[in-house]
């Protein structure tokens, strides 16, 4: 959402508010070109802060989604970047970046004013420019949110375990989550997680059944959905009789949640919380043994949607499924042989 807002700031055809005509007294006391400087400030605060930040340091939520990141003007001196280069970048944009051209959106005098504002305010003076959380911006008595400040600034990561926080910090995190998160997003976290995790919204239509491939009929859901791709049964040559039996049992009973390809990335698998185990994932399966997997199939996993199958599948059927999983998805380690009485006896 923040990124959409930032792009909206770039494309909005409205002009930023122009400074009012100064009075004679104000003109007499103002320094040369101060009206142009304030015009540049208004343009910057209306058009540029989404990505470059109110103080030119690019510390914004939108900037975290952009690659390459927007320029941090505070790290540059005016002599390190030519004024003409800046005028050209603002006018025509920078290919390969999120910086678009403002020609046709800003007037030439506005482009010149914002260029000079950035060069003076951030590159030369390293000034703070404008605070966002002010009474004028609708944030009267912002200090009442002080308990949440450490999470907004990243001083404390948002996913810090609760037991490591003081009662005051836990209250501050609750305040951040209820008041600040809509703009500050997750602020700073220790675990970034996956960039994108899809969620299923609708079930494939046209009489689709797990394992159907290719689709019996084509529609916008069952043919195009990425979930359906995982309901394609793997073609494996040379299956043993036991593995063929396991294939039939797995596809009839387990594929509904774990997907035909064992990934759990089919529609049902992505819908369930927590997601079913990905039986192809080395980080999970490398420590799996035949006995452990048989126990999970028999008894289920409390707190998940994995049911107990001991009243449905017999021991031989469970072993057939394990043999198929080991062949089709990831090798399952054999159980270690029990120590013999002689070997375990105390000398």
Radius of gyration, CA atoms, in whole angstroms: 31 Å
**pLDDT < 50 stretches:** 1-8, 19-32, 218-224, 343-347
Structural class: mainly alpha
Please name the fourth-level CATH homologous superfamily of the largest domain: Cytochrome c-like domain
Report the mean per-residue pLDDT as an integer. 82
User: First CA to last CA: what distance?
Assistant: 71 Å
Strand residue content: under 5%
CATH fold name of the largest domain, please? Answer: Cytochrome Bc1 Complex, Chain D, domain 2
The biggest beta sheet is recorded as: none
CATH class of the largest domain: Mainly Alpha
Helical proportion, percent range: 25-40%
**C-alpha geometry:** elongated
Walk me through what this model shows.
About 40% of the residues lie in helices and about 0% in strands. The chain is an all-alpha fold and about 350 residues long. It has three domains: about 1-20 and about 30-125, Orthogonal Bundle (Cytochrome Bc1 Complex, Chain D, domain 2); about 145-185, no CATH class; about 230-330, Cytochrome c-like domain (Cytochrome Bc1 Complex, Chain D, domain 2, Orthogonal Bundle), CATH 1.10.760.10. Helix 3 crosses helix 6, helix 5 (about 85-90) crosses helix 6 and helix 13 (about 290-300) packs across helix 14.
Features:
347 residues; disordered N terminus; mainly alpha; Cytochrome Bc1 Complex, Chain D, domain 2; 3 domains
SSE layout and pairing:
Elements: H1 2-11, H2 24-29, H3 34-47, H4 49-52, H5 83-92, H6 108-124, H7 149-152, H8 167-184, H9 241-253, H10 255-258, H11 267-271, H12 282-285, H13 290-299, H14 315-328, H15 341-344
């Amino acid at each position: 959402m923040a990124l959409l807002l930032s792009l909206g700031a770039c494309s909005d055809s409205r002009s930023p508010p122009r400074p009012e005509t100064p009075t004679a007294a104000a003109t007499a006391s103002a320094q040369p070109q101060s009206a142009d400087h304030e015009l540049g400030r208004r343009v910057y605060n209306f058009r540029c802060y989404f990505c470059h930040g109110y103080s030119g340091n690019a510390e914004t939520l939108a900037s975290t989604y952009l690659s390459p990141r927007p320029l941090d003007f505070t790290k540059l001196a005016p002599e390190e970047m030519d004024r003409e280069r800046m005028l050209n970048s603002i006018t025509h944009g920078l290919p390969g970046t999120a910086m678009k051209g403002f020609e046709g959106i800003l007037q030439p005098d506005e482009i010149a004013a914002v260029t000079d504002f950035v060069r003076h305010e951030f590159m030369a003076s390293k000034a703070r420019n404008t605070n966002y959380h002010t009474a004028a911006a609708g944030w009267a008595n912002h200090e009442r949110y002080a308990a949440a400040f450490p999470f907004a600034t990243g001083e404390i990561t948002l996913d810090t375990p609760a037991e490591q926080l003081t009662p005051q910090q836990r209250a501050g995190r609750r305040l951040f989550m209820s008041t600040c998160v809509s703009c500050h997003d997750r602020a700073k976290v220790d675990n970034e997680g996956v960039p994108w995790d899809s969620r299923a919204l609708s079930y494939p239509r046209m009489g689709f059944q797990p394992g159907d491939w290719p689709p019996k009929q084509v529609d916008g859901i069952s043919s195009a959905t990425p979930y359906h791709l995982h309901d394609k049964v793997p073609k494996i040559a040379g299956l043993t009789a036991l593995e063929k039996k396991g294939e039939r049992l797995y596809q009839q009973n387990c594929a509904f949640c774990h997907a035909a390809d064992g990934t759990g990335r089919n529609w049902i698998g992505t819908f369930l919380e927590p997601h079913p185990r990905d039986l192809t994932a080395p980080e999970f399966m490398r420590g799996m043994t035949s006995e452990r997997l048989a126990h999970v199939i028999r008894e289920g996993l409390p707190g998940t949607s994995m049911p107990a199958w001991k009243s449905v599948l017999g021991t031989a059927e469970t072993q057939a499924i394990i043999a198929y999983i080991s062949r089709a998805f990831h090798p399952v380690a054999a159980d270690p042989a029990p120590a013999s009485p002689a070997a375990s006896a105390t000398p």
